[in-house]
Amino acid sequence: MTLLPAPHEPGRYRVAFICSGNICRSPSADVVLSRLLAGAGLADRVDVASGGTGDWHVGDPMDPRAEGPLAARGYDPSLHRARQVAVAWVARDDVLFAMDESHLSDLVRLGDVDRVRLFGDFDPATPGVEVPDPYYGGREGFEEVLDMIERTCRALVPHIDRALSSS
């Protein structure tokens, strides 16, 4: 079983999701996990953020093709604005989830490898899978990615709860 790192601060946990431009995969995971944590009564103890390895979308809202499926499933993606991950995140966040292997490599180069995880390692259907980039495809790809994100975020909630309880 893949474990999450212990929190920097007892009773508080900080999660960051990282993809390429922070307009599709990572902000979708941010929105989904935030709602699941609220439903589990953990929102007041867990901070969730997302960022991109590149800077080309900084300040932009979520891609409408990612927003649409989220909104159709009852999520509110409207507040998201793309950000770029910075070295400071590695010291601030308890775990940084890379959406694919290239993001994992980028994060490992930033610093504390013990706090970096491949998001797909927690996917209960296909552990270790990369979340594919739907950006250059159609709406179906965004729906498939959201399916992966929802099931993996559902699986993450008890891991986060255990990490909080162990602090």
Description:
It is a single chain. By secondary structure, the protein is α/β, with parallel strands linked by helices. It has a single domain, classed as 3-Layer(aba) Sandwich (Rossmann fold), CATH 3.40.50. The protein is built from five helices and four strands; from the N terminus they run βαβααβαβα. It has a four-stranded parallel β-sheet. The mean pLDDT is 95.
Task: Characterize this entry briefly.
This protein has 167 residues and is α/β, with parallel strands linked by helices. It is built from 5 helices and 4 strands, in the order E-H-E-H-H-E-H-E-H. It has helices spanning 25-39, 64-72, 87-92, 101-110, 139-165; strands at 13-19, 46-52, 95-98, 116-118.
Labels describing this entry:
167 residues; four-stranded parallel beta sheet; globular; single chain; alpha/beta
Set down the secondary structure blueprint.
Layout: E1 13-19, H1 25-39, E2 46-52, H2 64-72, H3 87-92, E3 95-98, H4 101-110, E4 116-118, H5 139-165
Parallel strand pairs: 1-2, 1-3, 3-4
Helix pairs in contact: 1-5, 2-5
